[in-house]
Amino acid sequence: MHSLRDIAQQMELFSAYLKQNGLKMTRQREVVVESFLRTDGHLSTDELYQLVKKKDQKVGFTTVFRTLKALTHCGLARETDLSDGRTRFEHLYNRPHHHHIVCLEYNRTIEFLSPELEQLQEQIVSRYQFKSVRHQLQIFGVCQDCQNQRPRKQDVFDSDLVFARDALQIALATERSGVNFYLSAAETSTHPSGRSTFLKIAEEEKRHLHELEHEWEQLIKK
User: What pTM was estimated for this model as a whole?
Assistant: First the structure.
């Protein structure tokens, strides 16, 4: 859990970031940020949106999307891909750099630290005279619990199921990219009718995304 002191410090940092960029800490932004800071784990935009709606029905999906992007830009959050078809966000404030092990059966995620791995990465970067900006490592597989529950799954290769999963992941990534594109277009549009059109298309893409996410949840149970 995050302490009240940590939350207050992050709120101050975010307020300062908004001020530097000519923006204000509105009540709706405050609800979104506070909801994010009080959670653990790796939240998608839609998951945070559902949490925010419980506190304030007036906060829209676009506000949640933009606020998460702003939190990322100011260094309080980081985008990560856990191969479930959604862009997820995790906390960065006062947290050491870490990596993820992801169970593909039920999307269970384990965070781990590895000084040895960090040292190896530094050696590789130095060897190639490369300036590193950031890096992430995700290891995908099947956890021990899932192996024990479904021991035969490792021995059976269902090519149709693998193809269906790959195709659905591509479709999810495409729809997610579409939502982000049209929301960004709406944000930068200076024409009211253009902005309205982009938002309508974004909502349509979002509905498609929810349908695909439901299909994905059903598929990974097979």
Answer: 0.59
- Fill in the DSSP letter of residue 54: H
- State which of 71, 91, 111 marks the end of a domain: 91
Q: DSSP per residue over 169-220, as a string?
A: HHHHHHHHHHHHHHHHHHHH--SHHHHHHHHHHHHHHHHHHHHHHHHHHHHT
DSSP characters for 134-151?
A: ----EEEE--HHHHHHSG
**What number of CA atoms fall less than 13 Å from residue 103's CA on the CB side?**
13
Co-location of 168 and 127 in the same domain:
no
Each residue of 129-173: pLDDT tens digit? 888 877 778 888 888 888 888 654 444 445 566 667 667 777 777
Residue 116 maps to which CATH number?
A: 3.30.1490.190
Contacts of 39 (CB under 8 A, 6+ apart): 48, 51
Cα 136 → chain centroid? 13
**CATH number reported for the structural domain that contains residue 73 in this entry:** 1.10.10.10
Q: How many domains does the chain have?
A: 3
| Range of the structural domain that residue 136 is part of | 97-152
